[in-house]
Design goal:
The structure is a single chain. With 155 residues, the chain is an alpha+beta fold. 33% of the residues lie in helices and 23% in strands. The protein has one domain: Beta Barrel (OB fold (Dihydrolipoamide Acetyltransferase, E2P)), CATH 2.40.50.90. A hairpin with a 5-residue loop joins strand 2 and strand 3. Helix 3 runs parallel beside helix 4.
Amino acid sequence: MRQKIGILLTCFLLFSFQNSVAQFLPVTKVVDGDTFWVKRSNGKEEKIRLIGVDAPESRKTGNKDVGYYGKEAKAYLEKLLLGKSVRLEYDVSRTDRYKRTLAYAYLQNGTFLNEHLIREGYAMTLTVPPNVKYAERFAKLQAEARQKKKGLWGK
């Protein structure tokens, strides 16, 4: 009986530990400066839209033209993400009307990607309730980027 309890306890602890460890997902493709794809452990790919940021369009789609600094924003995100993995954090709404997963993303070195893109001027803030966890923080960073004429605020 003790052995069975020990085995059950060990299994429970291992399961709990695995679920508490941050899961990093490999990035497989960058769509533009605020959207990319990751591969889940089951092999399925998932489209991620960064919460709280809006990068200029990097390609003409439908009725949207290529935006000023759009190609630079995409290239920068590719440089940061391709061949790397990210950890995702969610807010209140997990998906948008286009069925993309909404998330905050962290690089393996701890960089908060959403924040970084705004700070460096590769994206603007875009607050869409109820996902407002970092809205004030992002607004301050955007004001600083504008003042310092970084990225899309530079020309």
